[in-house]
Amino acid sequence: MDSFVEIDKNLGGWKKAEDQLKKQNYNLIVSVHQSFRTAKIVSSLNAKNKIGYYKWWNFWSYNKRVLRPMHLPEALRQLYLISSLDSELYKSLESLQVEKNFLNEQTQLNLHSSLSIPQWASCSIRSELSLHKLNLTDFMLPERYIVVSPGSIWPTKRWTESGFIELVESLPLPCVLLGSSDEKEICERIHKSTSNSINLCGKTNLLESLLILSKASLAVSNDSGAQHMAAAVDCPVVSVFGPTVLEFGYRPWTSKARVAEVDLKCRPCGKHGAKECPLGTHDCMKKLRSEQVLKLAKELL
Hints:
By secondary structure, this protein is α/β, with parallel strands linked by helices. The chain has 3 domains: 1-68, no CATH class; 72-100, no CATH class; 126-300, Glycogen Phosphorylase B (Rossmann fold, 3-Layer(aba) Sandwich). Helices cover 33% and strands 13% of the residues. The chain has 12 helices and 9 strands. It has helices at 13-21, 36-44, 74-81, 87-94, 98-106, 126-129, 161-170, 184-192, 206-214, 225-232, 283-286, 290-300, and strands spanning 25-30, 46-53, 64-66, 146-149, 175-177, 197-199, 218-222, 237-240, 257-260. The strands form 2 sheets. The chain has a 6-stranded parallel beta sheet, with helices on both faces. It has a 3-stranded parallel beta sheet with strand order 1-2-3, covered by helices on one side. Helix 7 crosses helix 8 (184-192) and helix 7 (161-170) packs across helix 12. The protein starts with 12 loop residues before the first helix and ends with a helix.
């Protein structure tokens, strides 16, 4: 990557970003976003080719529009956007027989088997981490440990604190609590309520967190960025799904994964979670027992 443009959504950042992007000419633009605002920005840029997902209204923005293959996990949906540029990639995607290999697996509500990821599509940055000379000795990590990430930007995506506390107390290895600075309070409460946890929440940067995950025996996370960080460094991960479901396609992108969830008619209640449960019960998280998560964790350990 040569450069990037950061967008502040709250302070007119879209216009500023658009002005920055307009300063260059492009050979190819590939957009994974489907919003009108993104289409408007893409239409204003000078590029030979513009590829995006098909919407009935966005013909004025893209040279080529691709039907979004909802039966694929999101990682492969995005690859499908550029499959027209690479015949081998197109053949690989078509040969997956995704209806059998992916859709049927995703609709199993209690998913205990490994998620099947094509070998050619696996994505790991573990080797790249070795390029960064990071010193983790200051964190006093044990030889073997489990990373637990109890936070999420969406409150309804967070499993209960009591569930995490029971799980941490039951796991056979010390647990390292990781999260952003916004998640310090929940991690501190869990830390104070458990006897075998190390609280590093808010104390690590992105690279340090990835390195800690790469050396962990297991990670336990909500349906949040932490599960994808674990997958990116080949760390086995148990992911807790509540208001969201596997059919959305945003599962941990690794074969060493398990998903813990409860079968409820009200699921899913939104694409990204919410600040409050629409029914006021939050049963998707409250009814998930620590024993269920522990069983999946032991399978991976």
